[in-house]
Amino acid sequence: MDLRKLTLKFIYNLPYFAESWLELRKVASNSVTPTMGVSAHHGDFVLYYNEDYVSQLSLNDYGVLGHEMLHIALNHFERLKERDRALWNIATDLAINQLLPKESLPGGLFPDMFNLPKKQDAETYYQLLSKNAKKIVFSISGGNGKGNNGNEKKGDDAIKEAQKHLADDHGNWKEIEKLPDSFVKTMAKYYANKIKSCGDCPGALSEIFNKLYRKRYTWIKKIKDFTGNSVKSLNKYTTWAKFNRKCEMLRGVRREYSAPVLVLMDVSGSIGEKELADSLNAMFNILAQRKLPLVILFHDIEVCNEMVVTSPKQLEQIKTNRGGGTDFVKPFHYVQEHYPHIKRLIWFTDLYADYPKDTADYKILWIVTKDHNNKLPPTGEVVEIDNE
Question: DSSP of 23-72, one letter per residue?
């Protein structure tokens, strides 16, 4: 089998990849990769492939070419961030292999091999793998049936075994990671649009691209709006101590404000320090204009500390890397008992906990990490942290 014949089969069966695949530069090199994998050369994506590996493939293994294109179009290189590379490699393959015909892949990883849910993105699979790294169970027989080893592996052995079954070589991604993130994302979006623009592109894949590259609502602006709308005028009275802008002969109007907004902070390490600083500073500045404090409750399985912020210097001391478990029920009841008059609650978390069954009489804004739990809360609005 040579790459030309495999390409014809690939384009015939998955025509929506045709334009993007033909534009991608391919280089045969048995020294760069043992199989095939995407890399960068002279500021552009390039696919390196091992001719010996390709010669062993059959025409029915055309899906491996789509696998490479999806790594590019879904920008799995720039999305790595600070994550563990081994787990991220597995997570990305779990996410994309199910977007291709299972019988078209020469092996590869699938969610049922780990007893994980289907149709999730790479970030979700990474979160599930990392949170359950010691308990995870891997069985090759749970996938596409092409494996011959049905023995289960657990914990670290499961991760090591899974890496042997990656559909391709991720070792040359480091060359792509040397390029500016903005450039990599722009190029990935370019290939995604090429795929999406073909009329045969499945709706599910188009929706994934739309979600990944849509213009997102700025989460900081959402926090500002949510906080600002909570600040209400409680009392209004006239006084000579306040200047009247309309007529200096009249008393000015002075208002007393109430800000029934509260912050709950999950301190299990789910929120990054930069994101936390940006959001808390935004809220503090809004409340400070009305000479109102910012009240923060820190919690893990229960409320463990309370801070009334009256100075921005206090925000620099806040850390959220305590680790441990998380619970929403006890903190929720704590708020009900100690702050019965609040109107708005902002909750920073990754959503990995059980939600309270009681309903709230106030509005809740959930500020969540990109790796958040896909099981969304029954009430309130969810906004994902996005620094792009």
Answer: HSEEEE-TTT-SSEEEEEETTEEEEEE-HHHHHT--GGGTHHHHHHHHHH
CA distance 128 to 374: 11
Task: Domain ranges for the chain, please list them.
Answer: 3-211, 219-384
| DSSP summary character for residue 11 | H
What kind and span of H or E run contains 105?
Answer: none
pLDDT, residue 90, reads 95
What does the block give as tokens for 14? 């998955």
The 10s digit of each residue's pLDDT in 345-380 is 889 888 888 898 888 888 899 988 877 888 888 888
pLDDT digits (tens, 9 = 90+) for 63-115: 999 999 999 999 999 999 889 999 999 999 999 999 999 999 988 999 999 99
- Residues 142-156 have a mean pLDDT of 61
Q: Which CATH architecture has domain 219-384?
A: 3-Layer(aba) Sandwich (3.40)
Q: Which residues contact 132 (CB under 8 A, 6 or more apart)?
A: none
Q: Are 344 and 365 in contact (CB under 8 A)?
A: yes
First to last CA, the chain: 43
Per the DSSP assignment, residues forming a β-bridge with 36 are 49
Query: Which amino acid appears at position 278 of this protein?
Result: D
Question: Is-contact 144 108, C-beta < 8 A?
Answer: yes
For residue 268, give the DSSP letter: S
Do 34 and 53 form a contact (C-beta atoms < 8 A)?
yes
Lookup result for tokens 């850390």: 319
How far apart CA 108 and CA 123 sit, in angstroms, is 18
d(CA 47, CA 186): 18
Q: Which of 143, 87, 151, 80 is nearest to 115 (CA)?
A: 143
pLDDT in tens, 203-245: 999 999 998 887 555 677 787 778 766 555 444 444 444 555 5
The H-or-E segment that residue 265 falls in is strand 261-266
